[in-house]
Amino acid sequence: MILKLKDIATVSSGVTFRSRIEASKDGSVRVIQMKDLGDDNFVHLSESIHIDHTQPKPNQLAKLGDIIFRSRGQTNTAALLNEDVENTIVAAPLFRVRPDLKKVVPEFLLWWINQPSSQSYLASRSKGTMVKMVSKQGLEDLEVNLPSLEQQKKVAEFFSLSMREQQLLEEIKNRKAIYTQGILMQMASESRPTASNKKPGFDAATSTPGQTQSRARN
What we know:
The protein is of the alpha+beta class.
């Protein structure tokens, strides 16, 4: 069954700020920004900021299972909010996509949005000369090939395992690079000249060039 995104989820624009977002140590409202969307397709809240803000409207609050979409930039991928949050909003130009759980599994929808075919469609709907941006309507009109919920869960589970595998492989790659660098540094240090390699008749610690020449004549 092929449906448009707007038939299975609600798309909301992020909150627009008139000036730069200023962090506040005692702020009561958390803000999800572009920088909080990781390459692993998840929203990372560990470095998200809090701000002083009037109480957000209920329809502005993010929650577990929301998909956060990059509407602007080189890529128009999305990330899943897989943590429980309170008093959290999404900043423009991000869009918040809230799946209808009776129709679609969030992880499946995330996978579909990030598929090359979906990305090609979104790129064709992006507008702008200097910075490309996908409109809300453009995202809502994205077609989704929707299998049964049971099949969606299987796809989502396989996708999650695949992503975990990629993370582990990347971690192994990084650790191997560090280990290899350590070995090369050790090999380089062992190849440096030692005291036994110095020319006889000259002791840098006790002799001077003049003394060395005198010894040579004798």
